[in-house]
Structure formats: structure tokens, C-alpha cells
Amino acid sequence: MLNCPIDGLILECDNNSLKCAHGHSYDKAKQGYINLLTVQNKRSKSPGDSKEMVAARQSFLASNIYKPISEKINQVALSHTETLATNILDAGCGEGYYLTQLEQAAKKEELETNLLGLDISKFAIQAAAKKSKNIQWLVASNRQIPIADQSLDLILCIFGFPVFSEFKQKLTTNGKILLVESAENHLIELRELIYPEIKPYQQNNYQEALDLGLTWGKSDTLSYQVELNKEQLAELLIMTPHIHRANREKLEQVKKLDKLALTINVNFRLLQIK
Ligand SMILES: C[S@@+](CC[C@H](N)C(=O)[O-])C[C@H]1O[C@@H](n2cnc3c(N)ncnc32)[C@H](O)[C@@H]1O
């Protein structure tokens, strides 16, 4: 179900590489992932999250602080797994935490899924590929998803960058998009410490998605409290954009804290074709 990112033709397996009928060839990396990111979709030498951000996110997520988020994603995703081998893409999968958790949950419930994870960051996909050999990991962009049109039953976009025109094209007629995003009070205690003022919260209505004919389905919110230790706090600051926008002095003060109690507050919204 993979397409050549240059001409859109089907990619067929040819030993350890994938080839289209025009002869464009893509090697499978020894870790098992495939790089299908074209130069046109690469706006810098190493687009997406850096090696340092990926390492920080990997360590933070491994402590299972966001496990309730992952469990909620699994619940929604597996309730859509009605047909055999449901095709699910995590678009902007990072280092693969959520998709590998979903793989395990599906296995436990004996549900057959075909899981794909893509990210524009090579470092993220290299880390993800080490976690599971059963998931198809791709270095690619949400702006050009190298997967056959109308082949995906569910697209997960978790704290990511949705490209709705592309997502819609890849979905089956009953396909859905699950958007997982920060809600009003997500990490509010940290934001209050590092920003001079907190802007009023406004949920994005994604008019561009509605203009494409997508409609809002079920939505849900998760809220819980955690206490981060010094290391987890440092990792959180590296893996989020906060470190770039925060007040430097305040940021240094936060880095000195031994612990911080935080609110985790996340929205789950489904978009569907009709
Ligand atoms: C905030 S992180 C979230 C990662 C993962 N979903 C998670 O929650 O752990 C955003 C991710 O989107 C990736 N990204 C940025 N632009 C992208 C694009 N155009 N296409 C695909 N991935 C992209 C980054 O490399 C990064 O891994």
C-alpha cells in the first residue's frame, strides 16, 4: 500500500528495497524503516524534531506519565477496528510510544491491525524502528503521505501537525481522524511559571477541514494530575516548544525545582468524512 513519493506509483518489494514501475528505488534501512521523504518536502537538512528532542521525549514517555493518554487513544482506535486488518496511520508518530502501545493493546484483544507510523524526523523514526518490527515506519511528511489513496481506516494525529487535504485523500469512505491536542489547562502550572502571561485558550475549529467536507464526530477530554521530578521536568522542557518561547530567567528557575505538580489536560476529537 506504499506509493512512490515522486510519481505516486505503487511500490513493490525488490529484495531489501522498494521500487516503482519507473525504477525509483528506496532502500530499507537496516533498522527496518524506509525513507520516503523527497527533497521538496524537506525544508531543512534534518527536518522535524532533533536527536536531543527525540531522546528527551523517549525518556519522558517511557516513565508512563502520559500512559492515560495512550490508553484513551487505544480505546478509541480499537473501537474502530471492526474489519479485519484495519489500517491505522500515526501521522507524526515521533519515537513511536503511542503506536507501539496500540500494537500491544490490539494484540491483547486479538484484534488484527496494520499499523504505520510516519514522521519527518529521521531521528524519531530511527528510535521508533527499534521498538517494533511489526509496524511499518516511514520517514515522510504529512504534506505528502506516500500511502495509497483511500486505504486508511484511521489516522492518529497526536500533538502533531495535521494536513487535512492529504489526510482526507488517504482515508476510506468510513475513515476517521483522531486529533489529540492540548486542552485549556494542559501543563498550566508550568506555563504560569515560565510565561509573563497566559493567553486565553481558544480551541482550533479547523475551518480548512470543514471546508473539505470533514465533520466533527465524538469528542472527549482527559484531565489528571502528576508530579514530575527534576529529570522529567528537564525532559518535558526539551521535548516541547516551551523552551524556545519561555522567559529565560523564569526557565532557569524552573530547571532548579526538584519537583513540580502538573495538570495533564488533553482533548480527543474525531473528524470523519460524513
Ligand atoms: C510534538 S511532536 C509529537 C510526537 C508524537 N506524536 C508524540 O506525541 O509523542 C511532533 C512531531 O511531528 C513531527 N513533524 C513535524 N512536522 C511534520 C510533518 N510535516 N510531517 C510529519 N511529521 C512532522 C516532528 O518531527 C515530531 O516528531
TrEMBL record:
Keywords: Metal-binding, S-adenosyl-L-methionine, Zinc. This is Uncharacterized protein. Transmembrane segments: none annotated. Gene3D superfamilies: Vaccinia Virus protein VP39. InterPro entries: Methyltransf_25, Methyltransf_Superfamily, RlmA_N, rRNA_m1G-MeTrfase_A_prd, SAM-dependent_MTases_sf. The lineage of its organism: Bacteria, Pseudomonadati, Pseudomonadota, Gammaproteobacteria, Alteromonadales. It comes from Catenovulum maritimum. One of its GO terms (molecular function) is metal ion binding. It comes from the Bacteria. Zn(2+) binds at C20, H24. Residues 88-166 form the Methyltransferase domain. The keyword Ion transport does not apply. Residues 3-45 form the 23S rRNA (guanine(745)-N(1))-methyltransferase N-terminal domain. The keyword S-adenosyl-L-methionine applies. S-adenosyl-L-methionine binds at Y66, E95, G96, H186. SUPFAM superfamilies: S-adenosyl-L-methionine-dependent methyltransferases. Pfam families: Methyltransf_25, Zn_ribbon_RlmA.
